[in-house]
Amino acid sequence: MQFITLNNGVKMPILGYGVFQIPPKDTQKCVEDALSVGYRSIDTAQAYFNESEVGAALKSSGIKREELFITTKLWINNADENKALKALDESLKKLGLDYVDLFLIHQPFNDIYAAYRAMSKLYKEGRIKAIGVSNFYPDRLVDFCLNNAITPAVNQVECHPFFARFEAQKLMQEYKVATQSWASFAEGKNDIFKNTLLMQIASKYNKSVAQVILRWLIQRNIIVIPKTTSKERMKENFAVFDFVLSEQDMQSIATLDTQKSLFINHSDPNIVKWLCEVHKDSFKS
């Protein structure tokens, strides 16, 4: 496994397993399968509503805690100082852990500065090993880096060949914030797995399109957390450290970039309103 050293010295596996959109009833089995394949980094969130099932899988695995890297995220409705403190307690209880390795602000809305103060306190207490953000656009990330004592260790953003985020990553590197990709496969949009260029490159290396995409991101030092419910796909996604894409192939894949999201525009007022309301009833105090 290859690791990324975060800006506070914590080492994070560059390849992990994500559980977004996996129903709670299936999550424990999927995480158990992922751990058996060799994954040690698991990415969940309060808004995925499957932290308890992740925790059950971690417990049943028997894997030593220090070998695991567990990420969860603070949802919008918990983004204030007091709620953030309580929310971490709830997440730790569900996960069955004394600490999480990475705690992220899931969306850049509500009182994120107050929430980050709470997260910073928990970080100093050792209950979080690293803190960061998710879905922060460059302008918001710069403001956040300049106006907090602790620079976010990670920014988890949509990133795939159709939305490559080259300029955003360059800025993150300037501020020593690691880039993490969600939707590495664009959730299959634009027929990504049948893309002619990607298929040609995959054939050249005797690999799958999925493996080529992950390798392309990893060679850019981008952390990936591909999600699948198939154990065979888990194995396939994990087998990406035995080949290296040429610089020419890296550049060829870069030409697929449209510089546009395939999912969500966090600058759209209607999207902001929807995100702030989508789980409101689920996170009432």
Automatic annotation (TrEMBL):
Keywords: NADP, Oxidoreductase. InterPro entries: AKR, Aldo/ket_reductase_CS, NAD(P)_OxRdtase_dom_sf, NADP_OxRdtase_dom. One of its GO terms (molecular function) is oxidoreductase activity, acting on the CH-OH group of donors, NAD or NADP as acceptor. Gene3D superfamilies: NADP-dependent oxidoreductase domain. Residues 21-256 form the NADP-dependent oxidoreductase domain. Substrate binds at residue 106. Pfam families: Aldo_ket_red. The active site is at residue 48. Coiled coil: none annotated. The record marks 73 as: Lowers pKa of active site Tyr. Belongs to the aldo/keto reductase family. This is Aldo/keto reductase. It comes from Campylobacter cuniculorum DSM 23162 = LMG 24588.
